[in-house]
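Researcher: Please generate the 3D structure of the following complex. Treat every line as part of one assembly.
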Amino acid sequence: MADVALRKVVKRYDDVEAVRGIDLDIADHEFIVLVGPSGCGKSTTLRMIAGLEDISDGDIMIGGDVVNDVPPKDRDIAMVFQNYALYPHMTVAENMSFGLRLKHYPKAEIKARVTEAARLLDITDLIDRKPKQLSGGQRQRVAMGRAIVRNPKVFLFDEPLSNLDAKLRVQMRIEIKKVHQKVRTTTVYVTHDQVEAMTLADRVVVMNKGRIEQIGTPNELYHKPATRFVAGFIGSPAMNFIPCRLEDVGGTLQIRLTDRIAFPLPPARAARYNALPRTDKLLLGLRPEHLTESHAHLEPGVETFETVLDVTEPMGMETLVYFGLDGTPVCGRVNPNAGAKDGAPMRLAMDLNNMHLLNEETGVVL
Amino acid sequence: MSTVAIDKAGPSRKVKYGSMSRDRAWALRWSYFFLVLFAIFFLTPPVYMLITSLKSSAEISAATNPWWVFHPTLSNYVELLSSNQFLRFFWNSSIVSIVVVIITMVISIPAAFALARMKFWGSATLATGVFLTYLIPDSLLFIPLFKMLGVVQDYTGITLLNRWYVLLFIYPTLTVPFCTWIMIGYFASVPKELDEAALIDGASWLQTLTRIFIPVALPGLIAATIFAFTVSWAQFLYPLVFTTSVDQLVLPVGITTTLIKGDVFNWGQIMTGALLGAAPPLIIYAFLMDYYIAGLTAGATKG
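Model: Done. Output below.
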C-alpha cells in the first residue's frame, strides 16, 4: 500500500492537451474518485497512473518513487476495466491467478490467495467457469478478484460499473465499498456518474477540460462548490442558476430575481455579499431541495413567492416541479402531498440560508 | 397509452408475421436452388475424376458412357501407391507444406502482433505494405526469384535450384503476407483492454502474445494455417520452375510431368493421383473446420 502523488502532470496528443498540469495527492488507504464529463481527462489521468499512457510532462509518484518511466508491471498496481477485460479462454481461477503465475508464486500461495479473494467477493462457486458463462456483475467481481489477489499498492478502477444495469450498479457500488473497507488499498476510481463519486469516495476530484475544478469530500463539494461547473455537476437534479442582481433597499441588501420577485438576504449572507459591486452580473445558485412548498411556519431566511408550474414529476417520496423565472427554467422539490399539478399556480418557499452566489462571467462561487 | 399501442400492433403484427414467413420460405427456396446449382458445378469434376480413376485404360478409351463404370478396378490406385516415384512426390509435398506452414506461422504471428498492437512509427504503412506484396502475382515474381536464387547459389556454393527445399524459401513469399494480413485483423479485434490487463498483470509482450493473443485469436490462426497449407500443397508454377529432376518434384508437378508422356495421357492414373493429392487438404479441413467454426461463433457474441 502506498500514497500516490501527481505533480504538474500533462498529457498532450499532438496539438491537443488532454490533461493540463494537474496536482493531486492521494493518501495511503484513501479512496479517491475522479469524476467529470466525458473528455475531461479523468481516464487519461488514471491510465497515466497505470503506466498505460506516457506522460508528456510532470511527475507521477507511487509510494514516494517517481514512476514516470516504470512499465505498468513494475508499478505494483492493479486495474479494473469498464469491459472487465477478462481473459476469455481462462477459467475464473486462472484469470485471477494469471499475474501471480507470471511472477512464479508458489502454487499453494496462489491457491490460498485466489480462495480468499473468491470468498471475499462471493464467487467461490464460479471458480471453474469461463467468463462467457458469467453475468455482467459476476464478471466484474472476477475482475476485482484479479486485482485483489495481487495485493497491489494501488487499485485503479476505470468506470467499472458503466456496463451494468442500474440495479446491479447500486449493488456493486456497495460491494466495492465493502471490499475497500476490508482491504484498505489506496484506490483511484474513475467515473462520470456523480452519484457513484459521492457514495464511494473519501475525496472526490472533479475534473473539467483537463483541469481539476475542485478536490474535496463529497459533502464539501455538495455544500461548498467552488465553481459553477462543480455546483452544476454534483447533485441531481442539478443546482438551479437564476440570473439576479443585488440591490440596497432601505439599508438592507436584497436580491432581485425578476421585476416582480426580490427578497432581503438573511443577515449572514448580507454581510458576506455586501462588498460586491451592485453592477455585477450574478447568478443565484439554489439546489432543488431548497425550493419547496410554502407552509405556515417558515424559518427566517426562507422567502415565499407565487409561480405557475410548467411540469411536475412525481418521484414517490418527492415531487419535482419545474417552472420558469423570466425564462430561466427552475426545478424545485416539493412534498408529494403538497398538491403540485401541471399548469397550476403554487406558492413556493426559497431557502436563502442555503443559497450560493456566483459571478456569471467567471463562474466562481462568491 | 401502452395498452392502446399493443391493441393496434396486434393485427398488423400478425399480417407482418405471415408475410415474413412467406418471405423466408421464398428465400429458402432460392438459397436451395443456388446451393444445389453450385454443388453440381463444383462436385462434377471430382465425381468425374473418381469415376475415371476406377476405370482401366481400355475402358477409358472405349466409346462407352463416360459417367458409368462397367468394370470397376483399383489397379490405378495399386499402381500409384506402389510406385516409389509417386510416394516420393507425396513425401516432398508433405514435407514442403508442413515446413512452410511452420515457417509462415513463426514469421506471421509475431509480425501480425507487432503490426496490430505495438504502435510504432510507420506500423500502419508497413501493414498496408505487407498486404500489397501479396497482390503481386507469382507469375511476375518467378523469373526475378529464379535469378536471385541463382546469384545466391553462385555466391555461397549451396545448391538451391532444382532442390525441393528451395521451395521452403519461395513459398513463404506467398503465404507470409496473406497470413500476416489475416492475423492482423484477428489480433486487432481483440479488445485493447485485454493486453493492457496482461501488461498490468506483469506479462511481457511475448507472454501477452503466447498466453493471451494466440489462444484468443485461435480461429484466425487456424484460418491462416489452412490457407498456408493449401497454397503450399497446390502451388504449381514455382515448383515447375525451380525443380526439374524427378526425385525433387512435388505432387502437382510430379503428376503432370511423369504421367503425361509426350502426347500420351495416362488418364486413369492422372485422375487417381489428383484425387489422392486432394485428400490431405480435405482431411485437414474436415479436422480443423469444427474447431474453426466453434471458435468463430464463440467470439461472435458479446463477452
